[in-house]
Write a structure and sequence with these properties.
Mean pLDDT: 96
Shape: globular
Order of helices and strands: EHEHE
Strand content: 15-25%
Largest sheet: 3 strands, antiparallel
Distance between the termini: 5 Å
CATH class: Alpha Beta
CATH architecture: 2-Layer Sandwich
Radius of gyration: 11 Å
Number of strands: 3
Number of helices: 2
Helix content: 25-40%
Strand order of the largest sheet: 2-1-3
Length: 71
Amino acid sequence: MKFAVDLDQCENHGQCTFAAPNLFALDDEGQLSYRGEASDEYTSAELDGADEDAVSSAVDMCPMQAIRLVG
């Protein structure tokens, strides 16, 4: 399983950083760190079991519904 972040929909609220701090971070400007790696959508590498649970929480917590599970 992977996750994808719609960077156009994301408004950098940072709730994902609380749910899965080892996978999501805000940079010094308060922007989701994946913005440096992608412009429209970021898709992660394959997740392990512990990360899958954390990302599921991040999906649920995102107020903009910008994160989704893939696969």
